[in-house]
Structure formats: structure tokens, C-alpha cells
Amino acid sequence: MSRPRPRTLAVGALALLLAAAPFVPHGGDDEGRIAASSDRTTRALATADTAPRGRLTPELKAEIDRVLAQGRAQAPGRVPVNAGPSRLAAALVRCADFDGQRYCLHTGWTESTQAQVQARAATAARAIAARPAATESTGDLDELATLRRFGRMSPAARADAERAELTAAARSVGKVWLLRHAIDGVTIPSSVLAAHPEMLAADGTAAARSRTTRQQRKTRGDYPQKAHVLNGHDVSEQHQTYWCGPTTMQMVAWGWTGHARSQQHWANKLGTTSSGTAITDMVRVTNAATGWDDKDHAGAYITLDVGDYGFGKWQLLLFRHIVDYKAPVILHPILLKKYYPYLDDDASGHFQVGRGYDKRGDKPNQIGYFEPWDQQRFDPSEPYIDRVQWRQAYKSYRANEAHFQHNIGV
């Protein structure tokens, strides 16, 4: 499938108008003015709505090499799978600084420090090791399985896998900056725009002119009352207990191509095992096998940590994806009965296809999603679960936050 070429702009001229600004971390649920250094800067900032993958600059390559060298120094051989969770996390969960944004291996883009991410991973791995074997699993690759999978690899194979993940992340840093700008009001430094022209709107277009004079970020109130993407008939239930990833991917791709490939096909593409599927692989295959990542939709999909998002900001991210990008979201909750009343038993981390919302005034807002899990398929005594769901958005938000990774594919 062809990919859009980065649009070019006279970056040098633009840089004269843009004042370099420090990185401002996001936080809270404010929806106020763009955090620009001046109104003149705001008018000059003709950013696109989203960004395709950009080029790998020498600075990005150097940072990838640094993280890989750190890995070789910490784990020159295979990491014993019986090593403690803290040792596994320290050796395998390492972070890169790509042009002011932090990406951590097996986790995604985050505002947390490397030490915080490693501590969360170790805590989650210990909890998984201690949980009862009878805990129901629907196919999300848990942290202990992730660490052991990479620990078993030879140093060369692990370095190749890490380089591929870091390279894909580095090429999507423009998308991260644009989301921080649109959702959080973070100023984009001129040096970042100069290095990543894929972030800029096409010069001279009506859309570009309107964006240059927009003084307000979009708020939740700027979006329509209800919206959705994807045909509600193009759905399927997972055929294996550990195939929530392949089935979610099947429905995401079905919505793009108009026809369904088998779940086995997607399991092969994702590298799914009986231990499950990683969200980073869900994002990788969405970018590689669909067109949802093109310039007219979501741009490069990324794995984004939303652990410090309030409910309002989480909803705004969903609204933007459904209305502005017209593309599905890869939801990553934990399946607990207190969040999903149709469940007969609490279960593991999970994937769902986010595809709509409904702002219902005085009633709780709803989120629309495709649910691949049907417990009745595997235990006929349990209630059937519909594929097409409209449920309280706040409960989905809480389920996402309750997952130890609290991340999402957007």
C-alpha cells in the first residue's frame, strides 16, 4: 500500500517566525489557550492535523544507538527467565528521548521517567507471577510474558527487535508532538518543526490558512453530539481464548479493506502466541497493513501512555480520533466485572476496537466499541456478549487506567 510523501515547506522562512520554546509537560484537564510564546507564533504555526512517518534524522539514529548500547552493557547475553522482575525490567525496559518526547520499549510514548516505567513493569510482573493460575485470560500479552519473551532472545535477535521498535517510534515523533499540541496545548519548538516538515500543513491551502489563525484548541464542546466509524456488521468474536489481539486487528483491517482476513492470518502478522499479543504489535500491524495511518486519517499510529489523563482529556482524545481522524482506536483495558457488567468473571488485559461516542447531556456519556470477547463460546453456561457495544465512557476510561500500562493505540 502506498504511503503519502512528506509535504515540503520553506522551513527556513518559517523558523524566522517561530520562537523556540521549552518542552511543557502535559497535565490536568485544562482546555484553554494554546501555550505559544506569542500570538505571532500561534499564527505562524500552520501544523497539520496529524503526521505520517517522518525521516530518521542523525540525532534520532544516535539516540537509538545509545539505547541499544545501554542494553548490550546491561544484558550482554540472554536474560535468565527466572531472574527477578526488577532485574528483567531494568535490563529490558529502557527509554529513548526523541526530540523532547520519551519512548520506552514495550510501553510506548510516556511522560513518566525510565525509573517509573521500570518500577511499574516490575510491580506488574510480580503481581502476575502471584495471581491464581485460574485467572481468565483473553489474549493481552502481560508484563511477565513480555519480559520473559525478550529475555529469552539472543542478544543479536533482541537488538534487532528493539531497533525495529525504536525506529518506528522515532519516525512517529511528529504525531506525538501534534497530539501534545492539540490535546495539551504544548508549544512545538521551531527546531522540531524544522526537523520534521511532515508535521506542517500544506502551504497555501484553505485548511492551512484557517489553522494559522485559530487561537483556541478544540474542546469537547466543539465536537458533534454523536459520531462513529466502521460498519457495525463487520464484526467477529475471537475464536481462541487468547486471540483478542488478532480479532481486534481483524475488525480494524476489515473496516479499511471492506473484507475480512482470517484471525489466524492476523495472529501470524502480530506474532501472537498462547501468551497473547502486545499492544506495540497491534500498532505496528495497523500501520503496516491498513490505510488508517495515511495523512487523511490518523497518520502514524502510536502507543500512547494516558496514565495521567483525566476523564475529560481521555474523551477529547477519543473525539479527535473519531471525528477529526475518522479512524478507529485500539482500546487497551483490563476486563473486570465492575467496568463491564456483561462479564461473568474478571479477566486479563484486553483489546477492543474504539469506534464511536455519544454525548448524552444529563446522562453519562457513552463510548462505542467492538468487543471481540464472547465468554459463551468457551463456556456455554455463561451469558452471550454482543459484538457491538455502547457503554458508559467513564467505565471504559477507568478500565484503561486500571491496566498497569494504561496506554492506548491512536
From TrEMBL:
Keywords assigned by UniProt, alphabetized: Signal
InterPro entries recorded: Peptidase_C39-like
Residues in the signal sequence: 1-27
Annotated ranges, domain Peptidase C39-like: 238-361
Domain of life of the native organism: Bacteria
Disordered, as annotated region: 205-224
Protein name: Peptidase C39-like domain-containing protein
Natural source organism: Nocardioides panaciterrulae
